[in-house]
From TrEMBL:
It comes from the Bacteria. Pfam families: Abi_alpha. Residues 57-88 are annotated as: Disordered. The lineage of its organism: Bacteria, Bacillati, Actinomycetota, Thermoleophilia, Solirubrobacterales. This is DUF4393 domain-containing protein. It comes from Patulibacter brassicae.
Length: 243
């Protein structure tokens, strides 16, 4: 490293300082002073360097530990939207039922077709009608009568003593029950039976029959048509199938 006096002398543009420095070094103590200046210069430069380092590189500040960016949770997949099937229309229900019946008609045996008929008829019965069928199942006949106008137009039909004998709950609905049973071909009408002559007057006392006689009467009294009621072959077949 160049001595301090030499560096200063190099700054002289006239070249006088180098000669002065060489002459001064022969003076006692000058060299020692120069070494002291070198040490002071070295310390000053070291301090300056430290200051520059502090300015250029500021001390790091304490920061929170860096958090790893986390991807947001994936949204739950939207549930599959159930396809909404509209309810079948009335026509579609009828078409479906007819198709089912036609398939049975093609594939069912005679016995299966008979069972289908029996089941359908029994499902259509109400309890009082089942009681009437039970009372007729033994082969007994019951008094049956119709009320008509003098001209012959029927006002009330199928009033019968079978209702009381069977113990039905609604005695005044016996004409309706017997009409339904006849329409299903479970009972049949027969001619008047003189053996039942005492039963016809009892039927005439029932409220529906009396009301029908009043409505049917005109200048002449209403006509009373006496008949009998019995179980039909189909009614007996169904009854025996259920026993």
């Amino acid at each position: 490293m160049a001595r301090a006096f030499d560096r200063w002398a190099s700054l002289d543009p006239l070249g006088v300082m180098p000669r002065v420095v060489r002459a001064a070094r022969v003076v006692p103590g000058v060299e020692l002073a120069e070494r002291g200046l070198d040490e002071l210069e070295r310390r000053a430069l070291l301090g300056l360097r430290r200051r520059l380092d502090q300015i250029a590189l500021p001390a790091p500040t304490a920061t929170a530990p860096e958090r790893r960016a986390e991807a947001p949770p994936a949204p739950d997949p939207a549930p599959a939207r159930a396809s909404v099937v509209p309810p079948p229309t009335g026509d579609e229900l009828v078409r479906s039922r007819l198709d089912e019946l036609l398939e049975h008609a093609v594939n069912d045996s005679t016995a299966q077709s008979r069972d289908q008929l029996h089941a359908a008829i029994v499902r259509a019965l109400v309890p009082d009608e089942a009681r009437i069928l039970s009372a007729l199942a033994g082969g007994r006949r019951f008094a049956l009568l119709h009320v008509a106008e003098p001209s012959g137009r029927i006002v009330l039909e199928n009033a019968s003593s079978v209702g009381r004998a069977a113990g039905v709950a609604l005695v005044d609905r016996v004409p309706l029950y017997v009409t339904r049973l006849r329409n299903m071909d479970l009972v049949v009408e027969g001619p008047e039976d003189l053996a039942l002559k005492d039963d016809y007057p009892v039927i005439l006392t029932e409220a529906p029959v009396q009301e029908a006689r009043r409505r049917a009467a005109g200048r002449r009294p209403a006509k009373i048509l006496r008949r009998t009621l019995a179980i039909s072959p189909l009614g007996r077949e169904i009854w025996q199938a259920g026993r």
